[in-house]
Protein 1
Amino acid sequence: MSMVKTLWVLVEGLFSKPMTIKFPHEAIEIPDAYRGEHKFDIDRCASCGFCAEICPNKAIEMVKLPEQYTQKYKKTYPRIDLRKCCFCALCQDICVKKCLKMTKNVFLATPDPASLIKDPMPKVQGEE
Ligand code: SF4
Ligand code: SF4
């Protein structure tokens, strides 16, 4: 690279917008089709277990809910271990009830690995 070109690149860099952002105060826009953390709607789930069967990483296990919920939710439902998940979305694609959906939540880093095991739970009041 000639000296002039080098200087031009330097000057251009001084006046152009930085490529980086000031995370966590700023964040990049996550694309709509992004495959982040799952959202599960237990009231639509048929307990078919297809999601657990298709998961290539064995990240889904069909489990019972805690006793206080078993009167309404008698069957087994998917527990998702995000520590094993590769976010392939096969579970979402095979779910005929469309009750397992990948969201744009990318913020999954945590000092508590156990919190990445997502138990199926009834919706809390006011939740979508
Ligand atoms: S996204 Fe893929 S790896 Fe993750 S739970 Fe679903 S099927 Fe398993
Ligand atoms: S989440 Fe979907 S695929 Fe999985 S058990 Fe429920 S209905 Fe079946």
Protein 2
Amino acid sequence: MNNPPSKWICDTCGEIIEKPEDGYIEWLSRTDNAHPRYHRLVLVHHKPKSPRERGCYPPKSKDVDMHMPLSHFLGADGLTWFLQQLSDNTFEDREEPIEMMKRLFVPGYEMARKHFDAAIADDVFEPNTKPGYYSQVQIKATLRWAEENHQD
Ligand SMILES: [Zn+2]
């Protein structure tokens, strides 16, 4: 929590989100027996910062579109929000909030995550955990490898 990532990657366009103010977190909500059920959780560019003319927000859906600035989710209150969703089981697939928590709170994870498979295939580290739950040493090795190999 002391060293959050300073940049993120947009789920829609794949370009860098430079600052918290430039990002939005969005998800869909449908009601199931009076309980909200969330799905399609994404991190995208805020419209004014999108490199795309039509923006990076996901296409409209019949479900209710929920969204908040990325800055709202960083820090302890954001962590608590995600923990409440896990406690209440609001997401249809709990891997969605878990993955987003890693992206927001595990140092280096966001920039390393698309390189893990290639780094492992190149013997950068030997996985000894569930896939995606890598240590800081493994994440740093992956980032170093990606930089040396000019992967982006
Ligand atoms: Zn984008």
